[in-house]
Amino acid sequence: MIQPLLVYPDPKIRLISGNVRFFNExxxxxxxxxRDTMIENDLHALxxxxxxxxxxxxxxxxxxxxxxxxxxxxxxxxxxxxKTERSIYYPGISADIDRYEYISVVYEDENGEPHTxxxxxxxxxxxxxxxxxSFGSTFVDRCDREMKERINDYLEYGLVADxxxxxxxxxxxxxxxxxxxxxxxxxxxxxxxxxxxxxxRELIYRxxxxxxxxxxxxxxxxxxxxxxxxxxxxxxxxxQTGNIVGxxxxxxxxxxxxxxxxxxxxxx
Length: 268
Description:
By secondary structure, this protein is of the alpha+beta class. The protein folds into two domains: 11-161, Peptide Deformylase; 172-266. Helix content is 46%, strand content 20%. The protein has seven helices and five strands, in the order αβββββαααααα. β2 and β3 (65-86) form a beta hairpin. It starts with 24 loop residues before the first helix and ends with a helix. The model has no long low-confidence stretch (mean pLDDT 87).
């Protein structure tokens, strides 16, 4: 049966494929689906993860035959060569990638029988590319930093995060943190009527007004940048619009409460 191909920005491409431990009809059906999908899309090779199957299975067309390579590993390689590659997952993108011209592979067939096989030239390159997919990688991961940045800027949502997960740091949080620091600073001024003179109290009050005037801009900046990140990292549930709006509303509520306190208590 023909299956849909994973394409950018589907985060499942970052899943690491497990080894096959069963060699039964289910595995045979996967291989049949991979073959049908290859025929439909005129492909010469396919990794199982590219149709959403998280197991280390690669099918390569050799002549009129479709040969499955199960649990494949490279045990020997020589002669690094640079050539331009394109990707099934990132359509329309190409880059110069270093691959080995010769590789020796161990694998199992669809019945669990072990084999070894040598690949050379373009066949070796294709096999390495699809083995990368099985290990949660794409050809972009082999690019230098400059090329990665160019590809990241070109893609609508940027490069897919490792593991299909969210980034460690969201830049929107800097806006939220700045707003919270200002609010906490203003809260600290609530104690000034007990400890400072009337003249200094007036200065603190004016500083509070300036800080409070900055907070709405930081909240708006948080909302705008958070919406941008929600588009860029579509796989992250913490990027969703509901969370962004909710956080913004809470911040505005805190701003209102702190502002009332300043006018009612700190104001000289």
